[in-house]
Structure formats: C-alpha cells, structure tokens
Input
Amino acid sequence: MTVTGYLADFSLPELFQLLEQGSKTGLLTICTLNDKTSINHHNHHIWFSQGQIVAAGNSLDQQGLMRLIAQRGWMGDRAVSRLAQTCQIHTPLGLCLKNQGVLTAEQLKLLFYTQVMRQVCALFALPDGWFQFDPKAPLPAAEMTGLIATATDVTLAGLRALKDWAALDEKLPDPSSALISVVESKPSLRLNPNEWQVWEFTNGTMAIKDIAQQLNLTVAKAQQIAFRLIVTGLAEEMPIMAAPTTSAFDLDDSTALEASIPGATTGAAPVSHSFLQNLVGFLKGKV
Amino acid sequence: MAISTEKLTSILQSFVTSTTDIQGAAVVTPDGLPLAATLPGGMDEERVSAMSAAMLSLGERIGSELARGGIDRIFVEGDKGYGILTSCGEDAVFLVLADKAAKQGLLMLEIKRTLVDLKAVLM
Amino acid sequence: MEIMRLVVTGPVGAGKSTFIRSVSEIEVVDTDRRATDDTLLLKKRTTVAFDFGRLQFGPDMALHLYGTPGQSRFDFMWDILIQKAHAYILLVAAHRPHEFREARRILTFMKQRSPVPMIIGLTHTDCPGAWDAANIALALGYPHPARRPPVVAINANETASVAQAVIALVQYTWAGSLTPTT
Output
C-alpha cells in the first residue's frame, strides 16, 4: 500500500528505517514545500529494492544517470543513449556500461556516490516535505548504477554529516529518557567512536543527559547520537522514571528506590480458562 | 490577564524559606504542568506536577464517588515527612512538602495564608 | 471474585477513554482535566490518573479496564497500572504518523516492565492519510510479520467494535497460556 505523509510528522530517517525493515521495493518521492532555496528541484526521487537504495534523482525522465555521466565528461549524451539501447531490459545502465568496458568500477562508485549519497544526504536537512512511497513503481534500469546502499548506511552517513538539526529536533529522544539495546550482539554497523561510547550505555538505566555528562558531550550531541542508534535499529528510547537523588531526601536506605525497579512487584494473579471462555462468550453477545 | 510566574515563584520562595520544616512547594495546573515551583534539589518539576495532578484528581473522585464531598486537601503522611495537596481555585493545585518535624496545625495555617496570596495572583 | 485487568494505553488522543466508555457497564471513573498543553490541539480534556471501566459477566467474574494517561509526564501511572495488568492494548491513531514514535516509546516502556500479552489497536483507520496495519506495525518496530502481535482496527465509539478488540486481546492472551485452538 502507498505510504504518504509529511516529513515533519514522520521524519526521513524513520521513513528509511521503515522501508529497510519492511524490505520495500518501489519509489519514494519527496516534494519540498515552499522551499525557496531550490527553485528548480521540487521533487526528489529515491528508488528502493528490497529495502535498499538503488538510485536517486530529481526527475522521472530516466535521463538522470546519463546526465551525470555526461557532466563528468566521460561520454557525450548521445553516445551514452546509443549504448544504452543495446543494454538488456532490466539491467542497470551503469552495470551494462561497465560490462561493455565503457566505465570502470571506480567510475561507477563515483557516480553512485554523487547520485545517491550526496543527493540523499542533503535531504535530511529538509524542514518539511510531503512524501509518498509507491510500491508499484517499476525500478528504473536507466537510473541505476548497479550499486546499492542500505538505507541504514545512508542514514548514518547523512546524520553524521548533518549540521543543522532543526528539522529533526522534535524527533530526538528526550534527554530524560534512557536507551535500551534491541540487538542481541554487538552491532555489525561501523560506528564511530562517539557512537560506540553511547552504545555502551544502552542498558535502559541511564538518562541521555547523564550519558552526555559521563562522556563529556553536550546534551544535544548525545541526543543526536542516540537518535542515530534508534533509527538504525540498534536501540530504542525508553522513558525512565527519575528516582530522586539521595541528597534531597537523605535516604539512608535504598528501599524507596527498589519499588520502581521493573519486576520488583509480583504482577497479576492468573485467571482461569473458564473465566476467559465466559468472558469471550459474554463479549460476543455485544458484537 | 497573564499570570505572573515571578509573583507565584516569589510567594513560594518566601513560603518555603520563612516557614520552618518546609522543604518545597509547587503550584501546578490541574492537568499536571508546572506553573511555579521551589523544590528540593534533584526533584523534577515536571514529575512533581504530574503526580500532584493525578493525586488530586483521584482524591476528588473519591470525594464525589464515596460521598466525602468537596476535597479541601490531600494529606500524604510518610515516615520521612508530609506531602500536602490543596486545590487552589479552578486552575491550580498547591503542593507542599514538609519535614516530619513540622507541626501540623502550624503547617495548615501557613498553607491557608499562602493560598490566599496565590489565589490573588491567579485570579 | 475472579478479575481480569486490561490496560488500555497509547499516545494522547488515540481514543483510550472513549474505548473504555464504549464497553464499560458502569459509569466510567475518569480523572480527566482540562488540557492546557499541546493536547489542546487535539481535544479539550485529558486523563491525568486513569480511567476505570468494568464489565461484570458473572456473579463472581469481572473484567476491569484501566486507561492510562497519554502524556509521558504521567509515566508513573503507566508503571502503576501495568504492574497488575493481565494484558494490554496499545491504541494508535492510524492517521497520525506523528505519534508513531511516541507509541513506540510507550511500548518500549511497557515491555520492559511487563511481559504480559499485548495487541495493537488502530483507531481512525478510515481517516484520510491513514496508514495500513502492516506499515504501522513496521513503524512501531515490528519488522517480521510473523513475530508481531495481532493488529486490529477499532472504532472506539462503537461498543461492538471495542468488544471485538477486547475479544481479540483475551483470545490472544488465552492462546499464550494454552495451545492455540485455531
């Protein structure tokens, strides 16, 4: 089903996480709203295959990759389109040109970097935009280099490079929340030193503002790192109930704190099956 | 007219400093947001506010459902001190935290006086 | 007296109080107050302690329903209510993607405090811009369709619809304590 919304409601990193975790294939279109800085490009397109990013561009004319190649001066427009016609249908243009010996692997990488990493990373700073994910859109072979990037990698790179976090400010975890790991082993992502340090605290007990203090980071910085861990599927934000510091109360024992530790209370007494049966029967009478 | 939080805060401050055995006080909205507070270090204003609102609403519910009438105050007595919640007009709840050593009669009197000042600002 | 306690949780304005009012046989014990924060954009009043509803279906059998406050400043109430719950339902407004992250935070909080069964209830599924169940489940952190709790669409204003959701929750709880019958 088509997914639509506004980036101010559901941010790009969240959207990427959703598309990756759902192994989605299709076209994500982002229309910028009242963006005066980019008069020419109001639409951004990102193609996904099985949750991975395969191409990006700002037009649907199937000429974007060719233009990029021409811009590099590696080949003229016409030469590329002539060669492209010999490509098998569904074969990514980049791969086809490489197989024909026209482009090197290095050149392809550079193209992909320009087409996907650079363009997509810039979108993280968008204050708002309307998005639509169309799972029925065909993959555009002519826009594809044949290279792919996981949405997670693009998110990590984009958010690390992001200078102005204003667009995502509301999405950042609360400084008084803790982080809890949702992966069983050490993350396989290549984290940077700061991210590793914060990762070490994903045990659900320390508030992000305290992690910041511990690591000599600003609270904002720690929130941003925490957000990266969350949207890359490594951790979840968890509200913790702040226990008052002992200085205020002069608590000589820790019994007062124990009550808030999960599992300290016994939970509910189980109900019988006949109870459940009766309840369901009763409720069915209301349907 | 806008409510002066400075005035509220200064009333709370003078209340907390001038009355012995009082450790903190707060004025919060009935839906649990802080208006003004002077609390012991380490106590989070937001949480204190939310808890005060929840407690007062439950107390008022007990008052009506269990036929106790309108609620003057809710009194929490612990072995380390008191927490007293008083309704402060329609738009505010007044919370006072006092030491175990506090004399209850005196405390109630001080609260009553301060309520008058607070209500004047809240009007 | 045998009592089953269900908790109804979810972000502000998901329909928790309405849900309980639609199915309770007693007049609901509510503790709502006039909202003074962002909640006002959605509705006038908001729960500050909990909502309580009851269904008595036998001389010694009753279902108790507790609705939590939506705002996270009341998380101490979330904690109190979930500790004694047999199961819970997370209500999410399908047309407000803005709140999916908040729903996810609540879910993380609940899961960490209680292992009891839960299902997801989607309200406002007929509103423009509503997401479908599969994508909301993804947004709430359930990437594997086979390993996610049941997701049901609910009209919180309709007794039949709410009863259906409670049945789903009870049956799911049942399935967990018994070998599934279907």
Notes: Chain B has a mean pLDDT of 90. Chain B touches chain C at residues 29-33, 46-47, 49-51, 53-55, 57-58, 61, 65 (CB under 8 Å).
